[in-house]
Amino acid sequence: QVQLVESGGGLVQAGGSLRLSCAASGSIVVINAMGWYRQAPGKQRELVAAITSGGSTNYVDSVKGRFTISRDNAKNTVSLQMNSLKPEDTAVYYCNADVITAMTFHPFDYWGQGTQVTVSS
């Protein structure tokens, strides 16, 4: 069993910043890619940013230049620094990790509980 716990969400004015963090724990052998997704009311969940175990990153076009994803492999954590926030960034943000446990040879997909980010005009 693997658990992902997010923190750092909240209310911020447009132009402000927030930093989201996610800690993975449990029977972890290897964590491959980690990422942040978000879902706004009435919209599909979308990948915001992802990072591989080797440090390669990718971002959805709408956040490029504003958001930065990073990870600490020793601590099994991933963070998302969000700057120049816009009202359209308002959503529930979910941490995701592809994790290999002692039970399998292939990664399983795990999700955090979500943290609310609200950006006011």
Main pleated-sheet profile:
7 strands, mixed
Separate helix tally: 0
Return the average pLDDT rounded to an integer. Answer: 96
Low-confidence stretches: none
Class computed from helices, strands and strand pairing: mainly beta
Q: How much helix, percentage-wise, in residues? A: under 10%
Q: What is Rg?
A: 14 Å
Number of strands: 11
What gap, in angstroms, lies between the N and C termini?
40 Å
Order of helices and strands: EEEEEEEEEEE
Shape: elongated
Q: Please report which band the strand proportion falls in: under 5%, 5-15%, 15-25%, 25-35%, 35-45% or over 45%.
A: over 45%
Could you characterize the architecture of this molecule?
By secondary structure, this protein is mostly beta strands. The protein is built from no helices and eleven strands. Strands 2, 4, 5, 6, 9, 10 and 11 form a seven-stranded mixed beta sheet that branches. Strand 4 (28-39) and strand 5 form a beta hairpin. The model has no long low-confidence stretch (mean pLDDT 96).
